[in-house]
Amino acid sequence: MWNLVDFVNESRQEATPHLNTKGLLTTDRKPKDAYYIYKAFWAKQPFVKIGGSDWPSRAQCADESSDTVATQPVTIYSNQYAVSLWVNGEPMGAKKIVNGKAVYPVRFKNGTNQIKAISANGSEDLVNVQFHVVANNLKSEENPFTSLNVSLGDARMFMDDLTGEAWVPEQAYKPGSWGYAGGYVYKENENSDRYGSTRVIVGTRYHALYQTQRVGLSAFRADVPDGVYEITFHFAELLTNKAQEKLINDLGVNTGTGNTKRGDIGHRSFGVIVNDAVFIEALSSENYLVPLRAYNTKTHVNVTHGGGIHIRFAAHGGEAVLNAIQLRRIY
């Protein structure tokens, strides 16, 4: 253990700017899951704790064989020898505590899910999780489509503490479902396994959302049922002007010819077409695509004749980018 509590670090950027989050407690002294591992080994008073209690709103795509259920692991921490779990009143059985914890695969349903853990000595913990199961078939009658929040270039789930909205990571398009077509995940360092940017994004409190993106995508599709939808796009240029110049020089781009090559971010300009209607003619650094600054915009679309939502990205120079997208059914 390095330190007990998260602390201010003015020079730090990343997803939580100016804050080092390696502590066992948050700055307002709320225990993280890691805290309960230490408690399981050191505490003499019997206890049991359901992990992820600070994650009350979640979203995930449904299991492959279902449109209504999504399975996530739930970790139970305890200093007792065994624990039993109940989910929505159904017993999940008893498990032995190993190295301070036991892990259950829990099948979450849409709406409120109640999880209760009881340790061998009778100690209890209870949490309620609001879960949004995203159907694999977006036209499922068992699980009608309401909304979808996607973080592009990302493999993480994300929760908005203020609104309770839950975000899912990107996926490639599958017929009947949703996803991107083409492109690649942005990496600040191509030689690293780490994706996204570590820089602070101006104009938003959702730094993590704008620090990842898919570059060079050609489309994003969602085979939603007929209806009226609100679409919100989130963009950010993740390369500074200095980084753009370096990239151009490294690639040997001749900026005087008007020609561009892959990665020529200095000339990035692209349009966004929604169901064959031009929504954005040319998004670039000459208007709203300013380096390290969040930009979001929304539109509405009327889906008819089973056509779904088909968004195309037309690159005029460089490559198109998308950081996040939200779809919400209005009626």
Automatic annotation (TrEMBL):
<protein>
    <submittedName>
        <fullName>Uncharacterized protein</fullName>
    </submittedName>
</protein>
<feature type="domain" description="DUF4982">
    <location>
        <begin position="72"/>
        <end position="123"/>
    </location>
</feature>
<dbReference type="InterPro" id="IPR017853">
    <property type="entry name" value="GH"/>
</dbReference>
<dbReference type="InterPro" id="IPR032311">
    <property type="entry name" value="DUF4982"/>
</dbReference>
<dbReference type="Pfam" id="PF16355">
    <property type="entry name" value="DUF4982"/>
</dbReference>
<dbReference type="InterPro" id="IPR021720">
    <property type="entry name" value="Malectin_dom"/>
</dbReference>
<dbReference type="Pfam" id="PF11721">
    <property type="entry name" value="Malectin"/>
</dbReference>
<dbReference type="InterPro" id="IPR013783">
    <property type="entry name" value="Ig-like_fold"/>
</dbReference>
<feature type="domain" description="Malectin">
    <location>
        <begin position="152"/>
        <end position="283"/>
    </location>
</feature>
